[in-house]
Amino acid sequence: MPLPSKNRTLQILNAAAAGKYGVLAAIAYNIEQLTAIVRAAESKRSPLIIQLFPSTLKQLPTLAHAAAAAVKSATVPISLHIDHAQDEAHIREIMQSLPVDSIMVDMSHYDQAENLEKTRVLAKECHERGIAVEAESGRINGGEDGIADTGDLEALFTAPSDVEEFIAADIDILAPSIGNVHGDYGPAGPAEGQLHFDRLEAIDKQIDNRVLIALHGTNDFPPEVLQRCIRSGAIKLNVNKLILEVWNVFLRENAAKMGLVSLIEEGMKVLQVETERWMDICGSSGKA
């Protein structure tokens, strides 16, 4: 069932696909980070996708409503996405009770057949409420704060048959496995040859505009790697540590010597500047 054209996440990503630039889908764990990334979007006149983990929804129940208020009041295109939703009951609770634009229905911890069936059923329910759906084909190794660690499960590259099966499950956004991992690569970023750009390009060609591509596992990426992924077809760029590490470092280095109000305000400025830098890198600045 096609989603209405007013879905904010899909509007943002379709515009990016047409303009051949990427859009940050930025994780926020608290109101300060949320504020900083929205300020960056306004300052850079850039579209933005705000991402919250299901664990954050439980830890800070009002944060989704604050994010929704930011989406509504923004003067640039912003949407609210729930990343790596892995519990079916919680997904149904989210779609019924929260003002979200899109959900990643992450059933990748099941075998392929069960993953597809659960994704198909949940996608139908989301679409009935105007919510766009992302899913992960193959399996991306690793874990990070807020999502289950799949380190004990075998990583699976996305194959052409996976692409067709997930499109048939009526998803809107596909997150392929091309050698990317959840978690850290190390200071130098992905090893030479770790990311299979040829596979990403082939997936993009096969998709042929039927769905959009999300890129997971961007920790430690150098700018040129992210830009190559965009050129290879990735539009939705999930970022966590890539932008948040400057916030973490600032707090660690200054918490003992600054008052709380100043620490928060200066920390938000640091994060805003870093988010703006990556908006420039992915080409979304000035596109709103």
From TrEMBL:
Keyword field: Glycolysis, Lyase, Metal-binding, Zinc
Organism for this UniProt entry: Melanomma pulvis-pyrius CBS 109.77
Cofactor: Zn(2+)
One biological process term in Gene Ontology: glycolytic process
Active site: 83
Protein name per its UniProtKB record: Fructose-bisphosphate aldolase
PANTHER family to which the protein is assigned, alphabetical: D-TAGATOSE-1,6-BISPHOSPHATE ALDOLASE (PTHR30304), D-TAGATOSE-1,6-BISPHOSPHATE ALDOLASE SUBUNIT GATY-RELATED (PTHR30304:SF0)
A molecular function (GO) term: fructose-bisphosphate aldolase activity
